[in-house]
Amino acid sequence: MASVACRIAFFLFFCPHGVAADLDECRKMFIGGKYEECAKLAEEEIKDRGRGEEWPILLTESLLTVGRYPEAQVAVSNALQRYRWSIRLSLLGHEVYTRNGEPGRARALMDEINDMAGSRSSAYRDPGNLVALGRAALLLKADPKLVLENFFDQARKVDPNFREAYLAIGELELEKHDYKLAAKTFSAALEKFPEDPDVHYGLARAYEPNARPLMIQSIEAALRYNTNHVGAHLLLADHLVDGEEYAAAGKTLDTVLAVNPWHPEAWAYRAVLAHLANNAKEESDAREKALRYWTNNPAVDQLIGEKLSQKYRFVEGSEYQRRALRFDPQFVPAKIQLAQDLLRLGQEEEGWRLAEEVHQQDGYDVTAYNLSNLQESMAGFKTVSNEDFVLRMSAHETAVYGDRALTLLARAKTNLSEKYGWKQERPTIVEIFPRQGDFAVRTFGMPHNPGFLGVCFGSVITANSPASQAGHASNWEAVLWHEFCHVITLQLTRNKMPRWLSEGISVYEESQANPVWGQHMNPQYREMILGEDLTPVSELSAAFLAPESDLHLQFAYYESSLVVEFLVDRFGLDALKGILHDLGEGREINESIAAHTAPMEKIEKDFAAFARDRAEKLAPGLNWEKPKNFAAPDGQMRRRNGVAPINKDSSAPTNAAPVALPTPVLAGEAAADSTNYWVLAERAKKLLREKKWVEAKTPLKKLIELYPADAGSDSAYAMLAAAYRGLNATNDERLVLTKLAALDADNTDVFQRLMELDETVKDWPGVTENAERFLAVNPLLPRPYRYLARASEELGKPEQAIRSYDRLLLLDPPDPAEVHFRLARLLRDKRDTTGSKRHVLQALEEAPRFRDAQHLLLQISADVSSNKVSTTGQESKP
User: Fold this and answer.
1) Entry pTM
2) In 3D, which of 245, 242, 243, 196 has the Cα closest to residue 221?
3) How many structural domains does the chain have?
């Protein structure tokens, strides 16, 4: 008698041509989204022929997809009676019984699969069974790496064109949060199956964390080949929820429920929308429907909680994760999400413990692995605190500027809490990371999320240290001020505020604290406002999610701050505070704005006029029309709490040669007489490239006269300073750079040059001012401390000089002997003989023939012997 395997082989290779054709047609129906038609055809084939596992598999999968769960159970149960040897049917049966809330029968099937694989493994070496065995092994908690090697990779080797192998590998990589590898797998699959909606959908999921525009393209492709693709519609709904486009998300969920009226994820998203609308009954009803058949499905609560946490509702999100874990205490997605929620809530002991549990439970979970490594890295951090803040930084950075950071935060708290009527109930935790990867893991769970300067979760702030901003210098003091403003607004609203308003207030408050901070109108923003890039206020949050470019994301921050400025100017600060109060009570944003200002339609109309007026008032004496074929640079853009500055040359020296640009067509306008911004700027750059310093001054002075607020490393001020430097006209260069320094908070090259020039003319207040400006951008370089210390000495401020020299010693200065000597001299003047002697000896240790230090040591010794001073003075502690 032929073996079962031989009978299967006979069916696969010698079945009638008509049957194979019908089967192929049915598969195409299923992949293309014609689920009901596929189910009907499969039923007919099962009745007519009654042969082969493929037909009941297609029937069951179709019934599952459209939410006919009880019927799917009948179908798979009947099939299993006839095809007990089928690994694929048994695996599908496990899913069906699970979805119908019968975990006992589901477990029994897994045991049977395990037995069959162990006793007759050689019978299941075809690609379909290899993939099925691999998926079963994962459900049985097998090592994912071994599953990949022994099953999925083997299936792909047996048949390089077997789509299920690619899908299984990509799904495993997505499950372990290895999105980069998943994108590679699905991209490879796409070359073989360019019209497969499941492959496009997998690629969309891989792009979701870091490439939303590409994700949207992949979703559109999936829906082009299967308009009923439930996964693609759900991913689109997820994206719309993230962008606060709740009405559109609801319509997308309607499409899913039209395909499957009982889809758990669709109803979970409905629960999220109801929660965000402050409708507890609808939220409960939606959750109940999500659990209609699988009553203890942990994925439902996990998804609801995850989406709420993404809306910064960490308290509510963590409660849902605990619900999920009550259904399944070992459910990894809920456990790792709860760990991150607790860490963001400042409940660190339990958060770190859960993260480590996940890491031990699943060594391939990338997020848990990252958090485990991060905890080890943060073990070396030092904590400094007061009654309002707990500040954690590397020990080195704490010693250098920890006190400065605490002082800045205290000032922000005093100013902003009084302004918004906020009372602090618990200390704010602030963590500053010297490695961008550590910041990204603490903030997002993944190390590869560059561009963000800082993030606030409500009572926890994470920020990149200046050490991680090589090539993209940003004012860290402005960043902390921005983030602490989030602390206040998020707590006042109980984290129930749209992103545009949250970011808008923080950027607005930067400029209120310091006119140089925040964002300001510039040529690019002017063009976008007067063009077609101004986003309606009601849609502003979506502008942060999938912007067309870095510039568009930057513009979203600026426009949001401009809306806040408009509301405050037009209706007063109390109106803004009233909106925040209403949001905290659960009121919808448009209703709250209407109650305190005007209906949204009028707000959008009036704001658009306000923005256009602001744009048109930017240097009105200039002609802003771009000449034909003109290619403008990105300009001097900066973003708080967003991606790194667009201006990639922000760290270039002020006299660096400008970037070559295409020569514009002047459209009949003489460049010498022009008032065109672009023509004047291009002419000046051309002359500077040719080192025609004198001639370059004419267009640059005209630009400054007509546009005095221009700032940035490629502004007219910077170029004019370069021209003066070329002419060795240092006094003129200094005057121009002084004006530029008052406009640009990030330009350390300008601050450094001004320190040099101010020291030359002994303008010690100027040296001090620019050293402080430099330290607000990068406090980890020795040069500004040297300048600040020297200026403090000259201005008769010994305490400030001592502090600066102390910091300088921490930063490996090029001449430590000189620093020790100056500290020794300052401490001797303060009658601190012990500290003075220690430093002069250290100076001589570095430079034994240092004559001035030798004389100072003799003087200190004479002081001691003559009892002129006490030897128990306060030591200086570098």
Assistant:
1) 0.85
2) 196
3) 1
